[in-house]
Design a protein that fits this description.
Layout (H helix, E strand, L loop, with lengths): L2 E6 L4 H16 L4 E4 L9 E8 L1 H13 L6 E5 L9 E2 L3 H9 L4 E5 L2 E7 L2 E8 L2 E6 L6 E7 L2 E8 L1 E6 L6 H4 L11 E7 L9 E4 L4 E6 L6 E5 L3 E4 L5 E6 L4 E5 L5 H9 L3
Length: about 270
């Protein structure tokens, strides 16, 4: 019987305690368990990965699964604050695992994106993301200028603090704080959102998920501009670099165990009336 992988936020005692409790509970029910780290090499003999922490822990697990070319579903246990992706709380953890073992859970397919940083004729970064890929100013940089193209067609030359390319899943992350729209996770779309644009006419744009977005920043000497992938990995950019974002070959399977709708989650997390 395939095992269950458990990955906990490394700097959290609560996450480690939850991981230990889940491991004991699963082994008592005859399931093999693997305790994973962020750098663990994943294998195909896992039929579930449980991420203990916040959304960041789940994002790291999602990248590891996609990078390994595997199709392992993920269940998130929320031990952080907001937790848009990690819907299960600590108090409901064992019940959620029982729902999965009983075959009563469901999975949602979530679009992932493939980002590359092209320098000259080679890719110096090649990474997958579940939420977003962002080109933004660093600590010392002022407003940046970015040429934006979609499917090879020029869109605009943008002056802003940065540009976000988000999935529907990531629409409630950085995109939301930058004034971008909330997109239902079942919508097959990308969102292109400027961060604090100089021109108020620069507004977020919803694109088909089949689109390829190219971001080419103008980088002056001593500028500090970076490309970040799900806030988990960053690359300092040089003049002439091009950041491309396109649909990844594989989607993430996110495990859901409750009957709550996406609107239920939005009301809870965003404190809607």
């Amino acid at each position: 019987m395939p095992g269950i992988g458990l990955i906990a936020r490394e700097d959290s005692k609560d996450a480690a305690d939850a991981q230990r409790e889940a491991a004991l509970w699963l082994t008592s029910r005859g399931r093999s368990v693997e305790l994973l780290e962020r750098t663990s090499t994943l294998t195909a003999d896992l039929d579930l990965i449980v991420a203990f922490g916040g959304d960041g822990t789940l994002l790291g697990a999602a990248h590891s699964i996609a990078a390994a070319g595997l199709d392992i579903p993920v269940l998130g246990v929320n031990l952080g604050r907001l937790g848009f992706l990690t819907e299960v709380g600590r108090a409901d953890m064992l019940a959620a695992l029982g729902t999965f073992l009983d075959g009563k859970s469901r999975t949602e397919l979530r679009l992932m994106i493939h980002g590359r940083v092209i320098r000259g004729n080679r890719a110096i970064a090649d990474r997958l993301a579940l939420n977003d890929i962002v080109v933004t100013r660093g600590k010392l940089s002022r407003m940046i200028e970015v040429d934006v193209a979609v499917d090879g067609l020029a869109v605009t030359h943008m002056k802003a603090d940065g540009v976000i390319v988000a999935t529907a899943t990531g629409s409630t992350a950085y995109n939301l704080s930058a004034g971008g729209p909330i997109v239902m996770p079942t919508v097959d779309a990308l969102v292109l959102t400027p961060i604090a644009p100089h021109a108020l006419s620069h507004r977020p744009v919803v694109l088909p998920a089949t689109a390829t977005v190219s971001l080419t920043p103008e980088i002056e000497p001593q500028s500090d501009i970076v490309a970040t992938f799900d806030g988990q990995f960053g690359v300092e950019l040089e003049d002439g670099d091009v950041v491309t974002v396109a649909r990844a070959a594989r989607a993430l399977r996110l495990v859901r165990v409750s009957a709550r709708s996406h609107f239920d989650m939005l009301r809870e997390k965003l404190h809607w009336g």
